[in-house]
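Final paragraph of the annual report: two paired records, presented back to back.
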Amino acid sequence: MNKTAALYLASYDISLQQERIRVARLLSSYGIRVQKSVFEIRLTRADRGRLTRGLRELDLKSGSILLYRALDTVPAETIGQCGKASITEGDQAWVLAE
């Protein structure tokens, strides 16, 4: 596991479908969707900068995105039945930039 990558949660509340689609596409290129409008992402400092720039470039008019740094020293607890709900060691998502 890359020790310089931190766990983040990104959530959004956007009313225009086209904007939601663009945000979801960008976020899914960095991490995994854990709920309809929530993504779990591992980011280095450089990745975080690229992601926030990409989100700002979307120039949203109908909502907002919140990016939270999560403390991942304690494993997440899943209650109930669901699919794969979090990024585990070895399941990191990375963006390849030119």
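The closing record of the year follows.
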Amino acid sequence: MLQSDKPEAKVILDAYRSWLDRPGHAPEKGWDINQSSSILYDTVAVYLAMSTDLLQMETLGLSVNKEGYTVIQENAKKINCAMEWKGLNAFEDFLVWRIAN
């Protein structure tokens, strides 16, 4: 992806480089854009809008408690939740393919 000419890849990498250039990030923390990236939670949310194939889904009652934590509560509104990966490597491959191609 680092060598991709795709506009999507360039925008993501430019934003990531800006984020890394802030004080207290790279290279003080040992982060190297050529070796790893930050966690891309938003990409999982977008994937879930398209498919749930690569994730283990559960319908759970969720609420937010007084401390601000999301907790499982049996009588709360039922929400379809991604609880764990069935295919993390496949998702990573899909993400790189989608951004770089």
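The radius of gyration is 17 Å. This concludes the annual technical report; the extension proposal builds directly on these records.
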